[in-house]
Amino acid sequence: MASWVLSECGLRPLPRIYAVPRTGLSSSSANLAKIRLSPICKTRISSSTDLLSTSSRDRNWGLKVSAPFKVASLDVEEKRSDKLDAVSEVEFDPASPPPFRLADIRAAIPKHCWVKNPWRSMSYVVRDVAVVFGLAAVAAYFNNWVVWPLYWFAQGTMFWALFVLGHDCGHGSFSNNQKLNSVLGHILHSSILVPYHGWRISHRTHHQNHGHVENDESWHPLSEKIYRSLDNATKLLRFTLPFPMLAYPIYLWGRSPGKKGSHFDPKSDLFLPNEKKDVITSTVCWSAMVALLVGLSFVMGPIQLLKLYGVPYMMFVMWLDLVTYLHHHGHEEKLPWYRGKEWSYLRGGLTTLDRDYGWINNIHHDIGTHVIHHLFPQIPHYHLVEATEAAKPVLGKYYREPKKSGPLPLYLLGILLDSMKKDHYVSDSGDVVYYQTDPKLSSSQTSE
């Protein structure tokens, strides 16, 4: 009360009334006596001073002055807590607009998680390339059918790891040097027959439109109209394992059903006119790798090349299709896809899924931490786990904790099979839609 009165009287700055511990009236009275009051405030002060003199002996003013601020803060927190409790009591709808903004998630992530360290990124490249050549040398040395299956799985996994590093170059999360990103991206991706710029641009489209029925680029749902237009053989190939897990090379050449163009064609609808040179450059690099493989087939023989490179390449394709599919499909509850005004970058990104890959997490550079990666692709892969943990309190139920894996993520095969049997198409209309099942296709899959 005294502080308010003095402030009203225009005393700036206020004197320190309690320069010593607030244990009695004497120090307060002495300080008050030294203050010169304007005539306008004498009336206000007199009543305030009477109040002080009659009550200060049995009051602890240190507590009373600060108490209102504490109480107000607690009240606000209690109200927020009550609101959260009320929301949690209602059944959660994953399609409901989130109560937070993209900026809220960004603010929760530590600043150092955004820092790109090119030397650290390069260390992963050196590690992975050394492992690739080491595995090939070991397999070629032993050259027996006990070693080859183990080599195919291990080398295919390492090809997939190389892809992830090139993927980081495409996002710019490898380093802040775009020339370095482009050179390494071309080397890494061309070595596994991926057109770097062609894929980079289409993948950018995927991130910018994630969760959108029509505008998403990879593994987006088919509308019912497009689905019904497919012949039975195409339906079976698309939804019957293992064929969908071999789709990536076909996608590079012809994209998904309902979309036209090629990742190798600079005139494709995928690309803008100013991206033509980039696409041509990547296609030339891809062609150079094909020519190198043809040359190697004459040097070591086609069978040896098939064992050293061809089978691991197909294993890499399976890894890529498995991981990219399950990051957007196969959750135990139906997740929404959006159109029109219901879609937003944030809502679309929140439909993505994290997956645990056991021992493979470190090998393929934590690509399983997919939600934060999709929302903020600029974050380097070696900060994704920490960034995800920091963002979880903000995301709440919009983040779906992944099932813990054993050393090898064999449990994902069951999830994949179940999704292929149920997730066939979405409605042609509606701005919030969910996957529907074709009973005829599902029954044919079961009978097989």
Explain the overall architecture.
Helix 7 (147-171) crosses helix 9. The protein has helices at residues 2-8, 25-33, 42-55, 61-89, 102-108, 118-142, 147-171, 178-190, 196-208, 224-229, 232-239, 248-254, 276-300, 302-326, 345-349, 360-363, 370-375, 384-395, 411-422, 439-447; strands at residues 337-338, 432-433. The chain has a two-stranded antiparallel ribbon with strand order 1-2. The longest helix has 29 residues, at 61-89. It has 20 helices and 2 strands. It is an all-alpha fold and 448 residues long. The chain is globular and about 65 Å long. Helices cover 58% and strands 1% of the residues.
Gyration radius from CA atoms, angstroms = 32 Å
- Beta-strand content: under 5%
Lateral strand order in the biggest sheet = 1-2
Residue share in helix: 55-70%
Biggest sheet statistics = 2 strands, antiparallel
- Count of β-strands: 2
Beginning-to-end CA distance, first to last residue: 83 Å
Given the C-alpha coordinates, what overall shape results?
globular
- In terms of per-residue confidence, which ranges show pLDDT below 50 for 5 or more consecutive residues? 1-74
SSE string, helix = H, strand = E?
HHHHHHHHHHHHHHEHHHHHEH
Number of helices: 20
Determine the mean pLDDT: 84
- SSE-based structural type: mainly alpha
